[in-house]
Design goal:
Uridine Diphospho-n-acetylenolpyruvylglucosamine Reductase, domain 2, FAD binding, five-stranded antiparallel sheet, alpha+beta, D-2-hydroxyglutarate dehydrogenase, binds (2R)-2-hydroxypentanedioic acid, binds zinc ion, metal ion binding, 18 strands, Uridine Diphospho-n-acetylenolpyruvylglucosamine Reductase, domain 3, 465 residues, metal-binding
Length: 465
């Protein structure tokens, strides 16, 4: 734990009342949405300016105190968990939108800006911030950048990385760097901005981000389609992609739908029961596009890939169809799921799915397995639900054994053990399934350059040595 005298010194670096050490705050700010580690930070500090962040980092270097960044704490890999007496640096009071430029279509955000705040701001300007996911109401831009957040529109718009025009960071040495200065074209050597995106706070803290916006989409329209089996999902993707620019292509299993129906507040898409469902979305900018979508749907039915389907006819119906997919993670969190967030290239999805499905069927015969995810970009979320009669530790231990085979399969297909949730602490021991030992040595050398004292979110991505 950090010495009390040091915490007193920390208090002098920020405004009065902006260091908390009470038990409730330590518990709340010491964890994210994972349930693997008990929170145990020493203090929570709330800087209000870049200068204060810099002072905190310099103080931490001087006294070798570990810092953990904290945004909306909606993460699913324990990257924002402080389980070892660290000081949590929370960006809740650096939550302003500082500037907007209509010609650059850019917004300067402090790291604590909530994702939805940026989405709403863009909408008010007649524009669009396209990175979206279920936790957009509480996740913060700084955290999104730290994990290179993905979500439900990646198939069309890519990950958070694509929307970061420039960053101001405080490095682990306490230096302030202005990275890329919001330029579209810039060929002046290493793009250090990219290193900080997805670094999970291990190199330094993002203290300001210029985010790009896009044109607002035109008449977004969703279809939910029921398929007879796993194998039909990818042909449906290819058929629709051949004729339409999709903004989303998601899937979920009957088990996921059953959990959503169990809530009682979301209407069923249609009466036919199907083993799998696809949710796809496109801009129905004119009648021709909508007709193309319907013709493709009919083609898929004729081919036997689709059993039933529905298309949204209003904004309300669009929202209701999205609830079928977006509410899954929160709804099943009640069953303390063991999570996987794996990806392969789209062309490999069918063979990969077959292999993973076989492992799951062989090894989890008694567990409830819930499949869903962003299958259109190759990202699958596999969630195993904890049976009531098993303790959390017994259950996670059993899943960890099976998980080895899942990750071996990911490696075999040159996939990623974390498509969008990040490595944090939950996946750091498995990093070698996606990154070679030599590559990891280079990654550690990068960390050492930005954070020589190892104070920035230690133990995340790789273990402390
Ligand atoms: C989603 O796609 C989120 O809903 C959460 O990435 C996935 O809970 C999960 O496994
Ligand atoms: Zn996801």
């Amino acid at each position: 734990m950090t010495d009390l005298a040091l915490i007193d010194e920390l208090m002098t670096l920020v405004e009065p009342g902006k260091v908390l050490t009470d038990a409730a705050s330590l518990d709340a700010y010491g964890k994210d949405w994972t349930k693997h580690f008990a929170p145990a930070p020493s203090a929570i500090v709330f800087p209000k300016s870049i200068e204060q962040v810099q002072a905190i980092v310099r103080w931490a270097n001087q006294h070798k105190v570990a810092l953990v960044p904290s945004g909306g704490r909606t993460g699913l890999s324990a990257a924002a968990v402080a389980a070892n007496g660290e000081v949590v640096v929370a960006f809740d009071y650096m939550n302003q939108i500082l500037d907007f430029n209509e010609f650059d279509r850019s917004v300067v955000c402090q790291p604590g800006v909530i994702t939805q705040q940026l989405q709403d701001f863009a909408e008010a300007k007649g524009l669009y911030y396209p990175v979206d996911f279920a936790s957009a109401g509480s996740s913060q831009i700084g955290g999104n950048i730290g994990t290179n957040a993905g979500g439900i529109k990646v198939i069309r718009y890519g990950m958070t990385r694509n929307w970061v025009a420039g960053l101001k960071v405080v490095t682990g040495k306490g230096d302030v760097l202005e990275l890329n200065k919001d330029l579209i074209k810039n060929a002046t050597g290493y793009d250090l901005r990219q290193l900080f995106i997805g670094a999970e706070g291990t190199l330094g803290f993002v203290v300001e981000a210029t985010m790009r916006l896009d044109r607002a989409p035109n008449n977004l329209t969703a279809m939910v389609l029921g398929t007879p089996d796993f194998d039909s999902i990818m042909p449906v993707l290819h058929a629709f992609r051949a004729r339409l620019d999709l903004t989303a292509f998601e899937f979920f299993s009957d088990k996921a739908l059953a959990k959503i129906m169990g809530r009682g507040d979301v209407p069923a898409p249609f009466a036919t029961d199907c083993p799998f469902y696809v949710l796809l979305e496109f801009e129905a900018s004119n009648e021709e596009v909508a007709n193309d979508a319907l013709a493709t749907f009919e083609h898929c039915v004729e081919q036997g890939w689709v059993l039933d389907g529905v298309m949204s006819q209003s904004e309300q119906q669009l929202q209701n169809l999205w609830k079928l997919r977006e509410f899954i993670s929160e709804t099943i969190s009640h069953w303390t799921p063991y999570k996987n967030d794996i990806s392969v290239t789209v062309s490999k999805v069918p063979a990969f799915l077959k292999d993973i499905d076989a492992i799951v069927a062989d090894n989890y015969p008694d567990f409830e397995v819930v499949w869903y995810g962003h299958i259109g970009d190759g990202n699958l979320h596999l969630n195993i639900l904890k049976p009531q009669n098993l303790s959390k530790d017994e259950f996670f231990a059993k899943c960890a054994t099976v998980n080895k085979w899942v990750f071996e399969t990911v490696e075999k297909y040159n996939g990623s053990i974390s498509a969008e949730h990040g490595v944090g602490m939950t996946k750091r021991d498995y990093l070698t399934y996606s990154r070679s030992p030599v590559e990891i040595e280079y990654m550690k050398a990068v960390k050492a350059a930005f954070d020589p004292n190892g104070i920035m979110n230690p133990g995340k991505i790789f273990a402390v040595e």
